[in-house]
Amino acid sequence: MSELKIRTRATGASAVLPPGGLPAVTTPTGGTVDVVTAVSAPGFNPLDLLYASLAACMVLSARIAATRLGVADRLGEVRADVGGEKAKDEPSRVERFNIRLEIAGDLDAATKQRIVEDAETICTVSNTLRGAPALHATLG
């Protein structure tokens, strides 16, 4: 199996909620996103951002999986559609994540399925969600 390469990059996010406004989220690398809360407002709400993180991680992990399998040259577009089901009881949370990967390219069904399975084990976000990490909030 390939050796895991560790690359460091500044990660994290800060959200600022101005009085009477909506949150603005920034990253240490300069990324920004405005957060919406109205049902029909275009943009990302906090749950969308969670799903987006999982979707992005899965497509990137699929490419890594294809490379490890030696089929990256035949890999076409990879698309991840992610949604979820909220729990009906408290606390408010996503009880189930649904991930559907579409993989284009000159690959047979068995290879595509292997890429899906490997991507799920490679993806840092899916591994984190599966692992129930500890959360620690402090007052700054």
Q: What would you say this structure looks like, in words?
A:
This protein is of the alpha+beta class. Helix content is 32%, strand content 24%. The protein is built from 3 helices and 5 strands. It has helices spanning 46-68, 109-122, 124-131; strands at 14-16, 24-26, 32-34, 75-86, 94-105. The strands form 2 sheets. It has a 3-stranded antiparallel sheet with strand order 1-2-3, with no helix packed on it. A two-stranded antiparallel ribbon has the order 4-5. A hairpin with a 5-residue loop joins strand 2 (24-26) and strand 3. Helix 1 packs across helix 2. The termini are far apart. The model has no long low-confidence stretch (mean pLDDT 94).
Residue stretches low in confidence (pLDDT < 50, at least 5 long) are none
Main β sheet profile: 3 strands, antiparallel
Read across the widest sheet, the strand sequence of neighbours is 1-2-3
Roughly how much helix do the residues carry, as a percent range? Answer: 25-40%
| Mean pLDDT over all positions | 94
Oligomerization status of the protein chains: single chain
Total helices: the number is 3
What Rg, in angstroms, do the CA atoms define? 18 Å
Helix and strand sequence: EEEHEEHH
How far apart are the termini?
Answer: 43 Å
Task: Report the strand count.
Answer: 5
